Amino acid sequence: MRLTEFNALDPASAAEAIGPALDIPRWVGEIVSARPYGSVSDVVEVARRAAHPFTDAEIDQALSHHPKIGQRDESESEEAKHSRSEQASLGPSSESTRASLAAGNRDYEDRFGHVFLIRAAGRSHEEILSELHRRLNNSPTAERVEVAEQLREIAVLRIEGMLS
């Protein structure tokens, strides 16, 4: 969608259009209510500001929609399409890397009680696996900070892509 189209939408349609970037109604509402925008970079700036801070409840809500890294969400939702595209950009991985990611995902979920979240865009499978192992050593508080930052990065990249 072009920025001019986004600016022209009624509020409910605008929220629906960008909701797949990040399912946090407050965040979506702040972006929609700041329209019209003169440039995509203006939207990105508002998106970044609206993402500081995310509450624990908002993080939990957003995490509930994210598939495990290395697994494809086969649903037809717009959010799933974004996730598939982001993970597909990683390219193929070896069987040992896939097995290591699956084991790491299980360890992470056992430790933190939610899916491991990382911005996949611009990263390799090996980098993601390395980050997963590093983050397993985080305290729950430190990990929550990293998860919030990853959500912000994912959301900003998605909204930028949606409107460019």
Write a concise keyword list for the protein shown above.
164 residues; mainly alpha; UraD-like; 0% strand; OHCU_decarboxylase-2; 2-oxo-4-hydroxy-4-carboxy-5-ureidoimidazoline decarboxylase activity; lyase; OHCU_decarboxylase_sf; purine metabolism
Give a verbal description of the structure.
- With 164 residues, the chain is mainly α.
- The protein has one domain: Orthogonal Bundle (UraD-like).
- The protein has nine helices and no strands.
- Helix 7 runs parallel beside helix 8.
- InterPro entries: OHCU_decarboxylase (IPR018020), OHCU_decarboxylase-2 (IPR017595), OHCU_decarboxylase_sf (IPR036778).
- It catalyses: 5-hydroxy-2-oxo-4-ureido-2,5-dihydro-1H-imidazole-5-carboxylate + H(+) = (S)-allantoin + CO2.
- Residues 86-99 have a biased composition (Polar residues).
- Residues 57-102 are annotated as: Disordered.
